[in-house]
UniProtKB/TrEMBL annotation:
InterPro entries registered for this protein in UniProt: TrmB-like (IPR051797), Tscrpt_reg_TrmB_N (IPR002831), WH-like_DNA-bd_sf (IPR036388), WH_DNA-bd_sf (IPR036390)
Domain Transcription regulator TrmB N-terminal: 8-74
Entries under Pfam families matching the protein: TrmB
Name the UniProt record assigns to this protein: TrmB family transcriptional regulator
Organism this protein belongs to: Methanoculleus frigidifontis
Amino acid sequence: MDDLIRNLTTLGLKEYEARVYAALVGIGEGTARQIHEASDVPRPRVYDIVEGLVNRGFVSVQRGNPHVYIPVEPAVFVHQLKSSMEQAAVDAVHDLENLSLDARSKHSPIWYVQGEWSILRHVESLVAGVSRELAVVCMDYERIGEFARLLADASAVHPVSILLPSGKRGIGRMLGNASLHVPTAFCDFFQEHIFQKIYQGPIAVDGSSFLLEYLFLADDRVCLIVYTQNGVRNAVVITLPFITCVQKQYVNKMIAHAERIDAAGKKEAE
């Protein structure tokens, strides 16, 4: 019994709640007096505890004199506890990530992000913080599905421009009102030293290979770069104005000289 009570408390019940539910399962159904005798929970506490379990859907009651309490099936009961714990875990991580974002934005203009969950949370935060416009550089449109809902929703509120340096491959449908662009050559220096070396292939540094996947720009205030380092996905968030403003000018210049893709996936004149 002690192991059972310990497991139930691990799933989120208080000890007396665990003892009351376990006692009800053991006797099948019972009154407050019978639950007290089977659980060793003080009788003055039994009524409040069992009524609390009723309110949470863990116990049903036949009102009468006295009331008779019946536990839900253990499998249903444990599933509900597990689901509540999982949702609490998801909510806790989300809230902690928001706290982390707030703290970092106050103290550091550049920080690194690791893990798919954290990368998604940071992209969500960046998109939610857009006040004027959002620009996105996407190296492979076939992968943008992971952010499709975010970008489509954002395009209903703000202008969203998506630049596709690798071309229009993989485009099956538009993303809400977002505009899609394929860059063209417009400056020899930019084409050779920036576009070809940074956007169109891996960069080798000290034995590591860096490959750009996405660049998100919220207005000209926040830049989030998703990249792989030796095949491991990471991201960096930058709020330093000297960097974000320059990045925004680069992207704006490419968009201004790009060919726009229409809803059918064809290029159209700007």
